[in-house]
Write a structure and sequence with these properties.
192 residues, alpha/beta, Rossmann fold, 14% strand
Amino acid sequence: MIKIGIIGDIGSGKSFVARQFGYPVFDADKEVTKIYKKDKNCFNKLKKKLPKYITDFPVKKKQLKTAVLKDRKNIKKIEKIIHPKVKKNIKKFIQINKKKRLLIFDIPLLLEKKSFKKNYILIFVDAKQKDIKKRLEKRKGFNKKIFNTLKKSQLPLEIKKKKSNYLIKNDFNKLNLKKRVKILIKKILNKQ
């Protein structure tokens, strides 16, 4: 089994790239959303750590955003509760898909969190900053302050690029991107 980690900037199109492989995708953002919606235990821990902000179950993103905007240290508090759950779900995902040739991991903090990175082939999604900015501004609920706070908790893009095995250009043309992913899959499979 080959594990592929898709990394890059916020809004660079990582999730779209991940889906183009045609293999099972572990989407950490979707997993975290599920945890906020369904995990009462997680809610209780968050409420205990951030009682001023987390009041309702399911956990509301608006409350999380407020907590992060009030104090950047709250990101660490949230991550300490959420990441072990995500890690557990990654193990389940791998177990369920153990017979698949490729598994794709769309985990924004793959490089930042040592507990996540284990034998991944890393693909950096490279997109122009002006294109990313345009896309992000169209996103529902986009908050520039939150964006900047999250960026500060991530490694610089140049370091992510250097640590990557492959780079894939995203010009936000779906057809071009699909072709690039097909070429990349062949390259990866031929090397194994």
